[in-house]
Structures are given as C-alpha cells and as structure tokens.
Design a protein that fits this description.
alpha+beta; 6-stranded mixed beta sheet; 20% helix
C-alpha cells in the first residue's frame, strides 16, 4: 500500500507571511506520505531560490526530494515543483520534466517507479491553458508511462464539469475543498489515476497547523499496488 499526497506550499508563507518552512514540514511529517507532490517550493523571481530549504527536508520528514536536472543550484524544484519520497523509493526512481504550453511558464514532473508513474503538476490560471496542459500531460503519459498512472497537484480548476475533458479515461479524485485553507470552499487540488489502480481511501488533511501553514490544505490517497 502507498500513501500519495499533494500540497501547494504557497512558498512557505502561510496565508500572509512570514516565511516559515518548518510549519509546512510539520504538516508533511504529520501527513506521513510515501510520495508527495509539492507546488510552489521556490520563490518566483531572480534565481528562484528555494522556499522550502533542501537541508531540512529529510531531518524533518524522513523523505528525500527528487533529483531534478536542469534547475538552478539555488532552486529545489522545476517551475516551483518537486516530489518528495521515502529513501527506498528514491533509490529506484527516475524523474522526467514535461514542459507545458500556456500563457505563463508551466511544467509538470513525472516520477517513474517500477509499476507506477506519478506526475506532479501545477496548472495555469486560465482554463484554456489548463486544457492545453492536460492534453499535453496525458499524451506524454501515454508515451512514457506504463498503465498505472497517478496525476496530482494544484489543478486550479474549481468546476467538476469543465476543463478536465482530457482526463475522461481516468478516475478523478477531489477529496474535498482544500482552498482557502482557513475556510476551504474550492476543490482546486485533485488527483487523476488509472482505473486499474486499487483506491482504498482519500482525504483532505487539516491537522498539524495546516490551516496556517499555507493557503492550500494537502490532499491524500491510499492505493494498493499489485
């Protein structure tokens, strides 16, 4: 059984600041995932320095960040995204960057494990861009992945009936409202997984000070792998 999660860190500033990454790390530690896709792990401007300090991650959570080639030395992720995982998974994982179209610079990251591909994403603010991005992601997934795929992240889509057409062949999972964290109203954080995966349970995590640590709450799912 694997516990998967997705969490938009909002650059570790909570709703309004200050920068306090230990709050986010405490949330991740309490959530206790095997694999977690993170968004907004770097600051936006200049050399995009890491907002989530790399040196604290393993000590605080027991997880390791994916090795992402092609980013600056000061950045933790690519387009602000990374994936953390347990050390035994990091030993056998490979990661691929997926450039995405749209009005603003975006990209997804694909973590490949034996029997499972996990794709982390942070989609654009415009629905037209999100449609293009999901079309590109599903096409790339069909090319590089096996038949067990989980896509997860901040979809930036609050509707269930629009913008997700490219995912018609997947099981859509939106465990509940995750934004804004203090009083969640919108289901922006989602997962899409292959229908041949055994989904055990899902949820939105609000413990360990999560309502103060970011503007999003993390979502999670447990799956059984053959």
């Amino acid at each position: 059984m694997l516990k998967l999660a997705s969490y938009n860190l909002h650059k570790c500033r909570g709703m309004t600041g200050p920068h306090a990454p230990l709050r986010n790390l405490a949330v991740i530690r309490a959530l206790d995932p095997d694999i977690i896709a993170l968004q907004e792990v770097d600051f936006r401007y200049g050399v995009r320095p890491e907002a989530l300090p790399r040196k604290l991650i393993q000590a605080e959570t027991g997880l390791l960040p994916a090795r992402i080639n092609g980013t600056t030395e000061s950045s933790l992720g690519w387009h602000g995204q990374t994936i953390l995982m347990r050390p035994h998974l990091a030993e056998i994982a490979t990661l691929r960057r997926l450039p995405l179209p749209g009005l603003e610079p975006r990209g997804a990251i694909a973590l490949r494990l034996p029997g499972l591909t996990v794709i982390g994403m942070h989609l654009g603010l415009a629905r037209s861009s999100r449609r293009q991005q999901l079309t590109r992601i599903t096409a790339q997934a069909a090319r590089i992945a096996d038949d067990r795929i989980v896509m997860m992240g901040d979809f930036n889509e609050w509707r269930d009936d629009r913008g997700l057409e490219s995912l018609a062949g997947f099981r859509m999972i939106a465990p509940g409202p995750s934004y804004p964290a203090p009083l969640p109203q919108l289901r922006l954080d989602r997962m899409a997984m292959s229908t041949n995966l055994d989904l055990v349970e899902t949820g939105v995590f609000s413990g360990a000070g999560a309502r103060d640590a970011s503007d999003h709450l993390p979502i999670w799912a447990r799956i059984n792998l053959p």
